[in-house]
Amino acid sequence: MSSHPPAFEKLYKILKLEADTGYRDKAMIGGLSQFAARWQQEAGSGDTVNRIADLLRTYSQLKPVDPRRIAINQMVQLMGFSTTIRPDPAAAPAAPIEPENVDKTVEPPPAPSAAPQPPEAAPDIDVIDQSPATAVVPQPIEPAPPTRPAPRPQPELRDDQGRPLGLDSPVSAISGVGPATAEKLERLGVKTIHDLMWLLPRRYDDFSNLKPINRLEYDDEVTVMGTVWEAKEIRTRGGAKVFNIVLSDSSGTIQCTWFNNEYIGRSLHRGMQIVVSGKVTEYNGHLAFVVPEWEKVDSELLNTARIVPVYPLTEGLSNRSLRKITKRVVDYWAPRLTDPLPPAVMQSAGLMSLPVAVAQAHFPDSQSNLDAARRRLSFDELFLLQLGLLRTKQRWHSEPGRALTVDPVLFAAFVKSLPYDLTAAQQRVIAEIVKDLKTDRPMSRLLQGDVGSGKTLVAA
What we know:
This protein has 5 domains: 6-104 and 121-127, no CATH class; 165-191 and 313-336; 206-310, CATH 2.40.50.140; 340-396; 408-459, no CATH class. It has 15 helices and 8 strands. The chain has helices spanning 6-20, 32-43, 47-59, 66-79, 102-106, 179-187, 193-197, 262-267, 319-333, 343-349, 354-362, 367-398, 408-417, 424-437, 455-459, and strands spanning 203-206, 221-235, 241-248, 253-259, 273-283, 286-290, 293-296, 307-310.
């Protein structure tokens, strides 16, 4: 067993990961300077802990690579580890490490008299009290959701013959939709791009609220953003492949597990910053994510860290692939939809425009936007239904009918033969029906009334 305190062991692994990823201050979300106060709280008091915490606080200000490498090995020596940390040549970072001379060519060094400016990775470093005796230990910071890149303008799409694609084009004309996928979509009733545009989600999973790892609870449906601390593949006795990663943020770590998924093994490496969404469950006695959704932090998030659409599916078609196809369709065609409602009507009714409503119904940015999109689409559905009914009535009324006359003498005799007098309401309704019968326009009336109110008598 190791003779080092748990906090030292944890920091050593973080520093090793930082070295393996090129001293880019990416081993922890927010950087090592932000992690300093949290680690100091875990490690306790003492001169050694204070000196290490001071080095952590100033780490983000240092230029890569040599000053950061020296600072890391100073911390390693202070913790009493006998070996210095060197980058692992076999480690696969999440993104290509920029050459060391990039900063020198893009950003000239400051003049000797100028005070060094802190990098963006540690925005508040100049106001943090360096004295351990007065340092305030903050609570874990709620990670901010990654900003989604704005959709880029797309050129006009054309088919193989150079003809512009329209909403009536087959789904197979969409890039990435082959014959097999088109056949699966057809089983859902989707044959054209228009059909796919209006294949709305059947429900939504809200993964928009990021939580620190140390605040996760069993059965939570949440999103976590962190750095891949460890990634390894295990083979069971039955030959199945189990791929485990340890995800870390400034508050703690959690394991994520996938089964028989070679794509995960090829895609996730130490040092990557990813977003994971799913249900917190128990695996091998610890809280874990089992087969969660995941995406890189620097990509446009479709499956995590947002309100995620869940579509109707068929065999062989996953929600992940359908979201990707639908996003491509919505981004291109939704802004090109013509809104049938005049702006004055939308403003007076407080309605969202149709292009925005379609986009937000598929990929809502917030619950309020989703509610507004549903309200607009519901309005359109009821409005078109009402227009259809009025059109049918108008067409029906335009056809010639046969006028009927009611003999007033026979009618008066019938009323007089009744064992009771007609009520005022019955007389009024009978008068309206007789008036309609005298016109040459087809008539259809629904007679409503309570039980015993005389509906049968009036209809006769």
